[in-house]
């Protein structure tokens, strides 16, 4: 029980506030004490050198003994017990070093990183210490510079190209072939004939060329026909070059031109196109009259063709027999289940062999011309629409089963009277997507709708993108590409300015201002067929008579021009070996870790555990800093019963710890009484307050204090 007028005495340390986390022998772990009153009758050892000798018991010390107490015999007092030495604190869950220097020395002495121990073993030689410190820091910097290069290479996502050569049975690709004869539909036959007559009149007006012996109408009638169609074909003057430029060109020519002079016409052929309100117009011109007439005729032909509800004509039963005289694959004749039909506005009737709709896909188990597709074709022109198609023969394209046939982009023409042998080699490409390359798996993330409803290819995406731009800008769909539902094909009777819009979009599309080539990424998996062609005259001069005779009798058809009426096509694999080009990451995570470990071992000769040691060092630094800040703030603001001076003492790192757990008793000026000079302060152990009697009972301390001249109120 504390004495009246005195503050309660307690001892302890800040480590008792944080039992799990303590600083080992930290200077901050100082004792906290207050003035402790000594109980009466307690004889303590005197501080100082004399404390080793016992003090004599003053007379009258026996006074005040209770009844039954045994009086001690006078004699020399037993030696006081030695002060309790501070024992080592119990080991905490986590212990930290008491200073940064101690932590650094411990790390350098125990780490597995090469060169770190030289920072402390040569500390008595400042030059060596400085040398090794600079060398260690430079090595550390070089290593992390190499680390930066390795990470830069990794995050650039390089790829390696792996080429594999495989050999197996191959699926024969799809083969599309067209007649090059545009079809004359029955419901628009009259409009096409009218267009032919207007074209003939245009040729006569421009070139004075009469292309039909039946055209005998008067000039007025011919002019009326021409005015019946919008966007007439016109001859446009071209400004002549300046006279100075012509003189300069003549002066630079020192060699006499032996060729006869040609009277060049200073004009071009074209037709005018305007926008909706006629505020902007331009001429679509061509330097070649053939190109101008063909494009102008094609423009009007598209408008007439768009008036049909169904652009695919019904296939006649003998249409295939009139075009293909013979068909064999792997020495077996073809049947109707092996092909499908579609119509192209320019190339006419087209047939696709071995497409996805075939009952059984063709397989090639042997290379060579005898194990491929062999076709005998009729290439004689029926003169369906001569101004649309100006070539003779057939159009062929090789493509995948799930890909549409883009006859304009990837097709080639067959020459009549020639046997064309196409040898193929398959090649597959597998690209890496995501961060390694700009490709797409199936086109689902491409912001362009697939109008072809087939497998995604870059051509499918580009054509669909252009069709979307046509619908958005012009309000109608281009007839060469599929259209969405509830959208009409472009026709100047319904959309009078679509030609102006189309040619403007075509120019923007060619320069990629529409963004179609940017939006449409390459597919990650592509199967290609590399073709090589060989040509020979067929049939030969010695065999053409019986060959033509057999073809005529078998197909019940008389060939007028034998040499230009037939052609033969052979398509086959030249070998069953096919090449696969696949991409793989050049720097994987395993490669990166291996390179980082190699650099770490090169510069410091350590391993992954050394990295853990570095992480532990950083953690210890942060933990010690955090605990010091917490103790400083707690001692300054939250210490109970302590003032600002006590907080400063606790926060001071230079305050030495007390030698023991004794409580000092500072002198109190308010209780000082005149008397002899005070003795040195007594260092007493904490009193056992439980043994003290109640305040009302007589205390032996009074007599002890009265009989002990060395005890003064200042000491209390």
TrEMBL record:
Instruction: Locate the compositionally biased regions of type Pro residues.
Output: 675-688
* Gene3D superfamilies reported in the protein's UniProt record: Acid-sensing ion channels like domains, YojJ-like
Q: Which GO terms describe its cellular component?
A: acrosomal vesicle; apical plasma membrane; motile cilium; sodium channel complex
Q: Which reaction does it catalyse?
A: Na(+)(in) = Na(+)(out)
The biased composition feature labelled Low complexity covers 239-256, 664-674, 689-710
Could you give a single Gene Ontology term from the biological process aspect? sodium ion import across plasma membrane
Show the segment(s) annotated as Disordered: 47-90, 239-259, 640-716
Per the record, the similarity remark reads:
Belongs to the amiloride-sensitive sodium channel (TC 1.A.6) family. SCNN1A subfamily.
Its function, per the record, reads: This is one of the three pore-forming subunits of the heterotrimeric epithelial sodium channel (ENaC), a critical regulator of sodium balance and fluid homeostasis. ENaC operates in epithelial tissues, where it mediates the electrodiffusion of sodium ions from extracellular fluid through the apical membrane of cells, with water following osmotically. It plays a key role in maintaining sodium homeostasis through electrogenic sodium reabsorption in the kidneys. Additionally, ENaC is essential for airway surface liquid homeostasis, which is crucial for proper mucus clearance.
* Protein name as annotated: Epithelial sodium channel subunit alpha
Q: What gene name does this entry carry?
A: SCNN1A
């Amino acid at each position: 029980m504390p004495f009246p007028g005195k503050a309660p005495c307690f001892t302890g340390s800040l480590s008792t506030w944080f039992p799990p986390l303590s600083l080992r022998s930290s200077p901050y772990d100082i004792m906290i004490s207050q003035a402790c009153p000594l109980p009466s009758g307690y004889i303590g050892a005197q501080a100082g050198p004399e404390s080793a000798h016992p003090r004599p018991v003053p007379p009258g010390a026996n006074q005040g003994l209770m009844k039954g107490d045994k009086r001690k015999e006078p004699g020399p007092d037993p030696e006081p017990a030695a002060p309790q030495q501070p024992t080592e604190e119990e080991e905490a869950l986590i212990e930290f070093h008491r200073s940064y220097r101690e932590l650094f020395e411990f790390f350098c002495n125990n780490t597995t990183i090469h060169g770190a121990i030289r920072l402390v073993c040569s500390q008595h030689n400042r030059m060596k210490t400085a040398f090794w410190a600079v060398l260690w820091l430079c090595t550390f910097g070089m290593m992390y510079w190499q680390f930066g290069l390795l990470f830069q290479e990794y995050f650039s996502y390089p790829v390696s190209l792996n080429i594999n050569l495989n050999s197996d049975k191959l699926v024969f690709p799809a083969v599309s072939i067209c007649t090059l004869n545009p079809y004359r539909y029955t419901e628009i036959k009259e409009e096409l004939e009218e267009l032919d007559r207007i074209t003939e009149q245009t040729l006569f007006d421009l070139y004075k060329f009469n292309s039909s012996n039946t055209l005998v109408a008067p000039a007025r009638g011919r002019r009326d026909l021409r005015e019946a169609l919008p966007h007439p074909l016109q001859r446009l003057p071209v400004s002549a070059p300046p006279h100075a430029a012509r003189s300069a060109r003549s002066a630079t020519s020192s060699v006499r031109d032996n060729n006869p002079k040609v009277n060049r016409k200073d004009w071009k052929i074209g037709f005018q196109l305007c926008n909706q309100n006629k505020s902007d117009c331009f001429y679509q011109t061509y330097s070649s009259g053939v190109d101008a007439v063909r494009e102008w005729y094609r423009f009007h032909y598209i408008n007439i063709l768009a008036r049909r509800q169904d652009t695919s004509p019904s296939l006649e039963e003998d249409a295939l027999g009139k075009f293909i005289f013979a068909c064999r694959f792997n020495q077996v004749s073809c049947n109707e289940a092996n092909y499908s039909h579609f119509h192209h506005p320019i190339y006419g009737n087209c047939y696709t062999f071995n497409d996805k709709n075939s009952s059984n896909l063709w397989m090639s188990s042997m290379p060579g011309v005898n194990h491929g597709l062999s076709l005998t074709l009729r290439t004689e022109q029926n003169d369906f629409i001569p101004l649309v198609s100006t070539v003779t023969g057939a159009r062929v394209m090789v493509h995948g089963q799930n890909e549409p046939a883009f006859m304009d982009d990837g097709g080639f023409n067959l020459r009549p009277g020639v046997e064309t042998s196409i040898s193929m080699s398959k090649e597959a490409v597998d690209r890496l997507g995501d961060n390694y390359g700009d490709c797409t798996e199936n086109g689902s993330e491409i912001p362009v709708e697939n109008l072809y409803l087939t497998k995604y290819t870059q051509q499918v995406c580009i054509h669909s993108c252009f069709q979307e731009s046509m619908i958005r800008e012009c309000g109608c769909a281009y007839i060469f590409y599929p259209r969405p539902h509830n959208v009409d094909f472009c026709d100047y009777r319904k959309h009078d300015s679509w030609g102006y819009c189309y040619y403007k979009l075509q120019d923007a599309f060619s320069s990629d201002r529409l963004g179609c080539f940017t939006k449409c990424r390459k597919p990650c998996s592509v199967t290609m067929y590399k073709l090589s062609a060989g040509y020979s005259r067929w049939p030969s001069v010695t065999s053409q008579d019986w060959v033509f005779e057999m073809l005529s009798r078998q197909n019940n058809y008389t060939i007028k021009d034998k040499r230009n009426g037939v052609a033969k096509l052979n398509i086959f694999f030249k070998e069953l070996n096919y090449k696969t080009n696949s991409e793989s990451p050049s720097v994987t995570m395993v490669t990166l870790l291996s390179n980082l470990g190699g650099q770490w071992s090169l510069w410091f000769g350590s391993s992954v555990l050394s990295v853990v040691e570095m992480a532990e060092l950083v953690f210890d630094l942060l933990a010690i800093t955090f605990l010091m800040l917490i103790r400083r703030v707690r001692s300054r603001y939250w210490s109970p019963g302590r003032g600002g001076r006590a907080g400063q003492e606790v926060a001071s790192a230079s305050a030495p710890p007390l030698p023991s757990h004794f409580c000092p008793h500072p002198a109190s000026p308010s209780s000082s009484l005149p008397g002899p000079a005070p003795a040195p302060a007594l260092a007493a152990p904490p009193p056992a307050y439980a043994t003290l009697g109640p305040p009302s009972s007589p205390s032996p301390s009074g007599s002890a204090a009265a009989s002990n001249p060395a005890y003064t109120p200042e000491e209390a």
